[in-house]
Amino acid sequence: MDSESFEKTARKEGYSKIAGIDEAGRGPLAGPVVAAAVILPERVDLVHLDDSKKLSPGRREQLFGAIYDHAISIGIGIVDPVEIDRINILQASLLCMRMAADNLRPHPDYLLVDGTFHIESSLPQEAVKHGDRRCLSIAAASIIAKVTRDRLMEIYDDEFPEFGFGRHKGYGTKAHCAAIRAFGCSRIHRKTFRGVKEYVNRQG
User: DSSP H helical segments within the chain, as ranges?
Assistant: First the structure.
């Protein structure tokens, strides 16, 4: 990724601590939704940085470490499946992005938010459609969010080995759906989601 136009534009307007924000885990049937907010220095060399979905797991892990080495600040937000079911996945995604921004130290003075929605914040912000492909700091946030969530799902794999969370990370693969049919749903399944809600009365 070679485009830093969003950050450059914000800097020309007088902002200096510009945070890119993205989330991971809107689509899965199980596990939390995780967001990251990343403030990068004005000049940073992160080779192969791109939308996390375009990268191999090994490349994401490599960049995860590099981003932590170079970033001015990183904030994480996590919303669990109970809250996702209570407020819906869109609101949960916006909530965890706000939490990630609130957890930045130093605090940002401008936000670049992946997608078409703004988050609840008094800070000036811009929603960037496909921001994980078009904006350096959002791409960095997408990697931090994705790797953080994947690691959480690997921990859950130890607790619920029958579901195979370490392999599919909670997404609705054939193997995962077959496991839900066989074992019911676990405490980390999203019980309002199609493919899970039909088996809530068989919770494991």
Answer: 5-12, 57-70, 81-87, 89-102, 131-134, 136-159, 165-168, 174-183
pTM, 2 dp: 0.94
Nearest to 190 by CA among 25, 29, 26: 29
Q: State the burial class of residue 49 (Cβ atoms within 10 Å of its Cβ: 0-12, 13-18, 19+).
A: buried
| Residue 3: per-residue pLDDT | 59
* pLDDT on residue 86: 98
| Nearest by Cα to 189 from 13, 202, 50, 133 | 202
Alpha-carbon distance 85 to 2, whole Å?
38
Is 5-198 assigned to CATH 3.40.720.10? Answer: no
Please report, for the chain, the start and end positions of each structural domain, with discontinuous segments joined by +. Answer: 5-198
